[in-house]
Structure formats: C-alpha cells, structure tokens
Amino acid sequence: DPGSAAARPADATVASALGPDDVAYVDVAHVFGGGYSGVTSETQRWNGMHVSRYEPHCGTAHGDQHAAAIDARGRVAMTFDTEGIGSMAVDRDDISVVAPYAVVIDGSSCTLLGRAIVRAVRGSYAAGYRGYLDNRPAPTILNRFQQTYRAVRWHERTERELGPGVALAVSAHGVVAGASAVPAFTGTASGGYTDATGTVHTYSDTAAVPSARVWDAAGRARDIAPGAARSVAYDVADDGTVAGM
Q1: What's the pLDDT at 53?
Q2: From CA 130, how far away is CA 118, in angstroms rounded?
Q3: Taking the CB of residue 189, how many other CB atoms lie within 10 A of it?
Q4: Helix (H) or strand (E) segment spanning residue 166
Q5: How far apart are CA 217 and CA 172, in angstroms?
Q6: How far apart are CA 70 and CA 223, in angstroms?
Q7: How large is the C-alpha radius of gyration of the chain?
Q8: Residue 221 in contact with residue 213, Cβ under 8 Å?
Q9: How does 83-121 read in b/e, with b if 16+ C-beta sit within 10 Å?
C-alpha cells in the first residue's frame, strides 16, 4: 500500500534479531509529527530481497512493536506498546495501563508474558525487565531517572522477578545476564518550579551507572565486574560463558 507507513522511507532502522535461515527482524521508526507522540515504529521481516511487515496478532492493543531476539527454533521475543499511537504517548492514561506487553511468538501462537520488556528467549526461558514508577508498572521512557527496574525471567509461562537490574540475555538453562541499571541511560535531569506560596522547589536526578550482573539458575545475583567504572553483560552461552563490555 503506497500510503502506508511501511511504504514511506524510514527515519530510523535498527536490525534487532537474526534468526534461522538468515531471516532478519528489523525495527523501523517513522516520524510523522512533532514531539515524542509523533513517533511510530513497526517490525519488518527481511528474508533475502523480500521485506514484509511483521505484525503478529496477539490479542493486545498495540501500534509500536520491537523485536528483541529470536532463538534457534524461530521463536521471536517482542515488546508491544499498548496505545497503538506511539510508545511515547504515555500521558493519556494511568501509567499501569500504558505499560508495555512482553510476548513470545512461536509461528502463529503468542504467549503473553505480562507487562514488561522482553529482551531474550532461549529454550523454555525468556528474560527481560520491568520498569516501576510509584510502585506501579510503567513505560520505561516515562521517567527514566526516577524509575526503578527489576530483572524478570520467565520459564514457560511462570514469571519470577530476580531483583533490581535489567536482564538482557538468558541461557537454555535459565542463567540470566544483564546489568544493575539500564545501559543506555546516562546523564542528569534537573529543574524546578515555584509553588503557590512562592516557595522554590528544585530537583536533580542522575541515571544509575550499570554494573554487569549475572543471575544463576536459582535466581541468585552476582556482579561480575565489580572493579569496572561501567560494565554490561550482553549475552550468555549455554555453558555459562558471558560476553559484554
């Protein structure tokens, strides 16, 4: 359809997962207006020269979607936005209503994992993290400096929160690798306001520095680069070998 978003040149394209038979899943962003609410994204499936929009129907209202990983069986780990109008448009409902959905797709079957961001799938496990604001699940772009994050591991449909941090990879034996904080968040947010009495209020929040972290199959956490100024574990093999920076 020449009038569809898929037919327009992309404003940003990110290769997110490469699966069996060299099939790639690519996140494509389009900007159609000003501000955060003018951004929408989709996932495309690239197979040789053939490009198609990848939009599984998982029973959730969504517009933006992000493919994070694919395993050897071809199952895709995806995060869906819940508004259908761009993942940045989070000011229309309660934060717990617009928190993202984590989904694992196996052919035409969708396994809904709950409100979270899923980053990895392997064997019978999936892993990711959940952002909280005021003790409620929230979109992780809503207030990245004041939010807290908890790593999550799923075994089939059973969920376990592993504790503070973000899970970025999982082995077929349930070993999870990631970090103590979201790797991409840096810097300081500051500002202030004057209330009705004339009192000036100021704030300053600095993003946490990530430290590479591994959770074993029993869910026990261990920081594996305690002397580093900044570190992240991005992947873990089935033999327990961890790769990162």
Answers
A1: 77
A2: 9
A3: 13
A4: strand 166-170
A5: 10
A6: 26
A7: 19
A8: yes
A9: beebbbbbeeeebeebbbbbbbbeeeebbebbbbbbbbb
Angle at 219 between CA 218 and CA 223, to 5 degrees: 120
Give yes or no for a contact between 159 and 113, defined as CB atoms under 8 angstroms apart. Answer: yes
Please list the ranges in the chain whose pLDDT falls under 50.
Answer: 1-8, 36, 84-93
Look up the pTM and report it. Answer: 0.80
Reported residue count of the chain is 245
* pLDDT tens digit sequence for 191-224: 777 878 888 877 777 778 899 999 999 999 999 9
Q: What is the average pLDDT value for the chain, to the nearest integer?
A: 80
Nearest Cα neighbor of 44 from 25, 62, 65 is: 25
pLDDT at 38: 55
Buried b (16+ CB within 10 A) or exposed e, 139-168: bbebbbeebebbbbbbeeeeeeebeebbbb
Q: List, in order, residues 6 or more apart from 160 with CB less than 8 Å away.
A: 152, 153, 154, 219
Q: What is the pLDDT of residue 86?
A: 40
Q: Tokens in use for 55?
A: 């939009």
What CA–CA distance (Å, rounded) separates 231 from 196? 44
